[in-house]
Amino acid sequence: MTDIPKPTVQAFLVCDQVIEDSLTKKKSLIGIFTHLQAPSFPFQHQQMGLYFCLTDAEGLYHFDIDLIYLNSEQLVCRATLPNIDIGDRLQISDFGINVPLLIFPAPGRYEFRLRMEGHLIAQKDFSVMPPAGPFHRRTVRLSIPRFSHHPVYDRTPSYRSPVLMTERRSLPKTS
């Protein structure tokens, strides 16, 4: 086997989804993140996108991507990519991968590791955390009491009536 040049990694990003335009081949990264919130553990995440960009590469390359739970150095999963043939060292090559269904066993720090021919060439870490607390919710419901027919709080169209204005003037003045 001949030696192939070790590529330079210009970018390695984690996101919710990578979309590739069929005409231009441009990649759109949707939802780039460094933290995920999980309602419970083990946490089943439906899809995650990975993007990496290489230069100074020429030849046929074999890539693996590992997901490691850093708290225990546990291998969560490994993806093997089809061999990639890059024809010109001056070419900038970018790749988008959507990984379906990942299971995170516990809260903590995780890391994707990009390996070329078994050698680590890039890594990207992120956190998977439980919700911050009982008050951390996306939807906030407020219970606001409605004061029916109260001259000050009634917001019906009749609030401009002369009766209301008279009632407001009759409120005691504060010093």
According to DSSP, the number of beta strands is 12
Strand content bin: over 45%
Q: Tell me which oligomeric state these chains represent.
A: single chain
Form type: globular
What does this structure look like?
The longest helix has 8 residues. This protein has one helix and twelve strands; from the N terminus they run ββββββββββββα. A five-stranded mixed β-sheet has the order 4-12-11-7-8, with no helix packed on it. A three-stranded antiparallel β-sheet has the order 1-5-10, with no helix packed on it. Strand 11 and strand 12 form a beta hairpin. With 175 residues, the chain is mainly beta.
Sum this structure up briefly.
The protein has one helix at residues 162-169, and strands at 8-15, 17-20, 27-30, 35-37, 43-55, 59-61, 63-69, 74-80, 84-86, 93-104, 108-116, 119-129.
Write the layout of secondary structure elements.
Layout: E1 8-15, E2 17-20, E3 27-30, E4 35-37, E5 43-55, E6 59-61, E7 63-69, E8 74-80, E9 84-86, E10 93-104, E11 108-116, E12 119-129, H1 162-169
Parallel strand pairs: 4-12
Antiparallel strand pairs: 1-5, 2-3, 5-10, 6-9, 7-8, 7-11, 11-12
Question: What are the defining features of this structure?
Answer:
single chain; 175 residues; mainly beta; five-stranded mixed β-sheet; three-stranded antiparallel β-sheet; 1 helix; 5% helix
